[in-house]
Amino acid sequence: MSFRKIKHIAAGVAAAAVVGVTAALSGCALETSRPRARITFEFNGTEYTVEYQLYRDMYPQTVRHFIELADAGFYDGTIIHDYTSNDIYGGGYKYDAERYESDVTNGSPEDYLDDEGMYLEDDYYELFKQENSPITPSVFDDDGYTYEGEGEDAVLVPKEGEALPTLYGEFSENGHTVENGQRGSEYGALKMYYSEKIISDTAEAQVWVKTGSGETLLREYQYNSATSLFAVQTSASTALDSDEYATFAYLLDEDAEAELDKLMDAIDDYIDEEYNSDSDFTVTAGTEIDRFEQVAEQATAAEFDLPKTAIIIKSVKITRH
Known about the structure:
The protein is an alpha+beta fold. Helices cover 20% and strands 29% of the residues. The radius of gyration is 20 Å and the shape is globular. The protein has an eight-stranded antiparallel beta barrel. Strands 8-5-10-11 form a four-stranded antiparallel β-sheet, with no helix packed on it. A two-stranded antiparallel sheet has the order 6-7. The longest helix is centred in the last third of the chain and has 21 residues, at 254-274.
C-alpha cells in the first residue's frame, strides 16, 4: 500500500472568515465574494472533475490572478510536474503525450522540463507583456520612493517602477491579514506557489506590491514571486505553511471531495499494482526556475518528482465569477 493511502485523513471544514481588504476587480461585469472553478484532471485514461470555491473576500489579488489565467486557457493541457506525499504541483509545464513517454517514462525527464516548448514561464511572460494583457499587475520594481507633503503630513510614495510578471503574496508572513482568522490548510485546498530564491542580499531584493485594498507596500521579492504555479493539498497535512502561501480555494462540497478521493485512490491503486512505493512511481529531475531574474541574481535550481504516468490538468474553468 502506498504512503499516501496511509497518510490521507479527511480534514474537517473550518468556519470561513472575512478579510480586511476590499475585493479587487477581475474584469467581470458581476463578481461574487466566492467564485467557483472546475478543474478536470486525467489519469491513466480516466477524467476526474473537481469543483472548487475561491475565496476572493480573503485573497482578492490571488483569486483574480488565478481567474485571469484560467479564463485565458493558460492551465488547459498542463501536467502535475511535482508529486509529493502531501501536495501535488501544477501550472508550469504543457502536456505532450509522445514527449512525456519518451522523456519522463524512459529516463530523461530533464529534457522535458528544459524544453522551451514544454516550459510555460516564457509563455506566461509573453501573456503578461502583451497589449491588453489579461493579467493585472500587483508587483513592481523598487525604483525608490519619495515623500509627498511636508512635515508630519508627509506621505511615503513609491516612484513609478516597471510592473513585474509576479503576484503579491497574500499571507501573514508577507503582511497580509485576515480579520477573525482564516481557514487553515486542509485536504484539497489550492495554494498559489512560489519557490525559494538564490538572493544573497535581501535588502536589495525589494519590490513594491499593491494590495487588494489599494495600499502600496515595500516587501521582499521572494514572497511576491509566484507566477502561474499552484499546489493541490492531497493529505490532511502539508509542506506549505499557510503563513507563507496563499490558500485561496477549497473543495466546494462533499461531492468534490469524493471526486478528488477517486483520483487519489486511482493513483494509489496504480502505484500498488505497478510499483512498490510513491518514490518508484516518480522520477527526480533537476531544472532551473524563475528565469526572469529581474530581482533574483540567477535562475534558481529545483528538483521535481515527475509521475512516470502523467497526471494531466485537462482544463481549469471558472464557473462563477
